[in-house]
Amino acid sequence: MEPDRAAVAAVLDQVRAGGRTALTAPEGKRIADAYGIATPAEGLAADVDEAVALADRIGGEVVLKVVSPDILHKSEAGGVVTGLRTAAQVRAAFHRICENARAYAPQARIEGIQVQQMLPPGQEVIVGAVTDPTFGKVVAFGLGGVLVEVIRDVTFRLAPVTADEALAMLDSVKAAEVLRGVRGAPPVDRWALAEQLRRVSRLVSDFPEIAEVDLNPVIATPEGAVAADIRVILDDHQPPPRPRFTREEILASMDRLMKPRSVAVIGASNEDGKIGNSVMKNLVNGGFAGDILPVNPKADDILGRKAYRSVLDVPGEVDVAVFAIPARLVARALREVGRKGIPNAVLIPSGFAETGEQALQDEVTAIAREYGIRLLGPNIYGYYSTWQDLCATFCTPYDVKGGVALTSQSGGIGMAILGFARTTGTGVSAIVGLGNKSDLDEDDLLTYFGEDPHTECVAMHLEDLKDGRAFVAAARATVPKKPVVVLKAGRTSAGARAAGSHTGALAGDDKVYDDILRQAGVIRAPGLRDMLEYARALPVLPTPKGDNVVIITGAGGSGVLLSDACADNGLDLMEIPPDLDAAFRAFIPPFGAAGNPIDITGGEPPATYEATIRLGLEDPRIHALVLGYWHTIVTPPMVFAEVTARVVAQARAKGIEKPVVASLAGDTEVEAAAAYLFDHGVVAYPYTTEAPVAALGAKYRWARAAGLLPTPSAH
Amino acid sequence: MEPDRAAVAAVLDQVRAGGRTALTAPEGKRIADAYGIATPAEGLAADVDEAVALADRIGGEVVLKVVSPDILHKSEAGGVVTGLRTAAQVRAAFHRICENARAYAPQARIEGIQVQQMLPPGQEVIVGAVTDPTFGKVVAFGLGGVLVEVIRDVTFRLAPVTADEALAMLDSVKAAEVLRGVRGAPPVDRWALAEQLRRVSRLVSDFPEIAEVDLNPVIATPEGAVAADIRVILDDHQPPPRPRFTREEILASMDRLMKPRSVAVIGASNEDGKIGNSVMKNLVNGGFAGDILPVNPKADDILGRKAYRSVLDVPGEVDVAVFAIPARLVARALREVGRKGIPNAVLIPSGFAETGEQALQDEVTAIAREYGIRLLGPNIYGYYSTWQDLCATFCTPYDVKGGVALTSQSGGIGMAILGFARTTGTGVSAIVGLGNKSDLDEDDLLTYFGEDPHTECVAMHLEDLKDGRAFVAAARATVPKKPVVVLKAGRTSAGARAAGSHTGALAGDDKVYDDILRQAGVIRAPGLRDMLEYARALPVLPTPKGDNVVIITGAGGSGVLLSDACADNGLDLMEIPPDLDAAFRAFIPPFGAAGNPIDITGGEPPATYEATIRLGLEDPRIHALVLGYWHTIVTPPMVFAEVTARVVAQARAKGIEKPVVASLAGDTEVEAAAAYLFDHGVVAYPYTTEAPVAALGAKYRWARAAGLLPTPSAH
């Protein structure tokens, strides 16, 4: 059925006219009916014959309830009789209720007797919708009773949901099995339940003024799903719409920001220790090939380059103006940037919203809007665009070009990104500080990096999202092409409190973030180090083409721990078919362990590693390899690394691209061996069995989200 | 009441006499009665008057059931009537059942009618006991229905449990809140429930032949806890008792192993690449000050030392014989070691149980027992006793003396321990390989390291425990003195399968391990790298004296992530009292964030870090500090490190010992700064907010387990 929007609008008007925000039960029922949300069948009977006719039409057991504006406590008045099956029972109950009501309140106006379907016993579930400060309308599903209240077993999605998304929600709670029938109970009607979710999600999407809907409980049975109770809350205060840019507008301005031909530095300085000096030095020393244009009202030249009194004096087009002046001077200079027609301003200075100067930030944002300038910052370290040799920051240059774009809301985390990248030699396409996000934010960057051919993976640290829906849209457009890793800080209530005091941003409930980021196909990093490791590893790993993971290990002990890690990361250890088992056995000692892990045993020469790894790469049934190396005199670390790199390169030359990760157990020589392997396309770590498998797990999670792998049944 | 053991013994004899292993319901009931395990009141009525009298005695609602060996399906026969309250109802039901039974099966012998108490509605829980292959009798508790079957919300303890342990079990399930009353339900009688657990645990402890007990469900109400059904399974096959040594015997032989005056090397060799050559070199180059005695039937001297044809030719006492000969030669040489009266044999060779040669290993073990030799291994890299400059391995010497003793079941993991320790400069008291554990195992080592004054922390990698109870006893004796960290490999079913194929050891269910290791006060490391980091950090950190953790950070972004990590690790962020807040505020900019984290803001000079850290150390209400450093020009990494180390040292000089951990965000210079801090008693890591807080969390978990802190209410 098509929803009856007019009927809902009429109810909402009536509620507003009454100055209320909460709907009555009959109003809720009318809304449910208008959207085809199943509730118990019911009707109002004026006399006993009408009651009998209604009960007959409803079928099954019914309950009779007195309807009177003068009787609030129906049960206390003897005004409710349940479990009525026959016409005679309905007749008797009708008369009894009328008598009881008269006895209880002789003056009461009795408007009639409500005849309502009695719901059969079934699985109680909760279907609801709320308005999240970050994501707007979200629909919620949980199993009723203890599971949702004590275990908090609930899942969220952006509203509206499709029928498929609604069905997937049923499988997203921990106790999902319950709906399929446990302890001899029959499975519930999943379609009917999904339909309740879909309709509720459409209702709140069609009527933004509906802040909350609660169907609690919904009784799910093999025959259907009926909401025993519906609660609707209105809130007419809608957040003001955020300025939105089209995808083309975002790409056009971001392209000039990330690939500028000319950069002006407002507040460029010759004085050591000044930010305007560091930015100039980094632009120059970083090797930027475009024009570097220092602006300083008091200097003739900066670092040997002609300086301009004002950006208005600069000849020709300028793509980016980097601000390195105190906060209080920004507004004035930004107007000049606007008049000059510069499309991007990078606001390094702090002293805005983060120090309580919200008004100053608002003023600057308004100027930017007036002139059509996009703002990065304020309160940031700047940004790197590595393939342009562009280092517009007050940190130090970074020149290892590669495939990962990293962004951070916090400056401290940006510095950690830089240090980690440098020490590991991580190949980077960009590092961008977002700071107060007065304008440009994660969705703009994601939109750009999604299209940027240099970028193979995007990793973002964030504490909040200004516009969760725009981010989800950007993520959905990007994920089919490349992995998006998110470190969402402020996960826990303690953390969220800290986020509040840091940025003044309202941090959402982490469960909502978690479900919706996953729905958008984002890989969530559990911590800072994980984000950094994923960022380093994901561009190195080829995309797996199937679920079959095989562990080949020289150390049985590593094999056990690598198996643990595979299970932790939802990876499937392949059941090795007999012919493949025999093929592996041909290379390993008779006491080596069969199956998976394949334990080639310690003390084997390089040839054993080589033969088994080659077999693992060349057999098309295997999709990914996890290697466990054990340092021995027979196969020293660097020998293992060279052999492995060579076999992998040979396979790639034949067109065989499979992800290979390695855990190296041994003395300190394994560190150089791991670095060598990483440089040769094998994600390898010393002294850990967890990190290599976590990287592989992240790649698999992305491949699944991107639709490149079949969805597994059990994870 | 005291349990009636004779009554149980009589039932078990009867079951055995019948050749059965499962008890009937009446037999289960008799056992329950003998141990005071509450079950529904019941009795057998021969006639209607007896039934009425029984119902009257039981009180409340009763159910009547026909008892006939010829009627298996009582309900089908109309032989069950429920919900009887009055004498008249009981009478009517009695007659109805008799009529129905006669109609259903005219020839049936009717032995009487069972009159049974009907249990009131309540919370269904499960109380049980099983025989775990590692830990023996364990008692289990879970919430009934979906929670235990779908969510697997269950907890285990070693049987028998005390009343306090039983009460603690009720709080150890995820949905523990349910028992305290949720959704308007009243709380259940916790004491009655705990008493069921205690009695079941005592029953299986008293009668080892009871393999399994299931009370499922137990109906828990505010008035009590009654088992609706009891199931008992026997297994008369008891595992053979393991040879046990007294604590004094273990300490005496371990003392000679770890602090030997003389070490013989069986199979010492002059030939490069031979294990007997590596071991000799490592003993010599490691600087061992005792006698090094090479044994080789074909050499006169090894590495310039006089060699002996047989260990029997060595003059004087020998404490340890290290074996570096092929497996097939071990038995013969071991007899000579026995005849020489050497108390310890270190069996490096592989080729025993791990390659299927179980018989060879059994032979060697039997010889050791015959001569009273304790065996380490076989199939190990050897062992290090750092404070003795003893390196009896085929690896390379390690000489950084310190507080952590590390052991590993696997050789590969042992090599990872060595490499990690060397690269981080971890101070080590011992590294010991356990391999096949034919004799010495984790409990022997734990007993020794618990007493060893050099050892401040014990970290163990293990795949199985030969004797879980001996390990728990050793852990309980050690934990009050020093932390015990365990990496239990084979956590998951996939991992356990790999363990099975690696060692042939039967790996237990991980949930049992997890609960019982926690019960023993052990800190479980989630992965290899975590074990290594805990091992490095725990001896460095002083023990906290209370729960109040304070974060001081220069980077707001780090503060949020550090807060997340505190919540993840069950650490309490202190609510800062107003006077302390004011004291901190005096040192930080006006826009710095109050509360906890204390955000001193970026760009502050060393003096701000110094003043706030000093205040954090000196205020007695604060018990631990988590520092977030942000690399700036104003406070470079090494300056921060030196300032922090100095303030911490000054506090220690005044007797203030508090754990301090730090996360360093910055360019690569933070690596040296972190290493410097670690050397000066501050557990510091670059590029991660998780690792420092995880180390502090591990120290807190130990302090709680050791009874040095109040047990928190919420974690």
What do you see in this structure?
The structure is a homodimer of 715-residue chains. With 715 residues, chain A is of the alpha/beta class. Chain A has five domains: 5-117, Dna Ligase, domain 1 (2-Layer Sandwich); 123-234, ATP-grasp fold, B domain (D-amino Acid Aminotransferase, Chain A, domain 1, 2-Layer Sandwich), CATH 3.30.470.20; 246-379, Rossmann fold (3-Layer(aba) Sandwich); 400-539, Rossmann fold; 548-705, 3-Layer(aba) Sandwich (Rossmann fold). In chain A, the strands form six sheets. A seven-stranded mixed β-sheet of chain A has the order 19-18-21-20-22-23-24, with helices on both faces. In chain A, helix 3 packs across helix 4, helix 10 (330-340) packs parallel to helix 11 (358-371) and helix 21 (637-653) packs parallel to helix 22. Residues 494-508 of chain A have low confidence and may be disordered. Chains A and B meet through helix 5, helix 12, helix 15, helix 17 and helix 18 of A and helix 5, helix 12, helix 15, helix 17 and helix 18 of B. Chains A, B: Pfam families: ATP-grasp_5, CoA_binding_2, Ligase_CoA_2, Succ_CoA_lig. Chains A, B: Residues 257-352 form the CoA-binding domain.
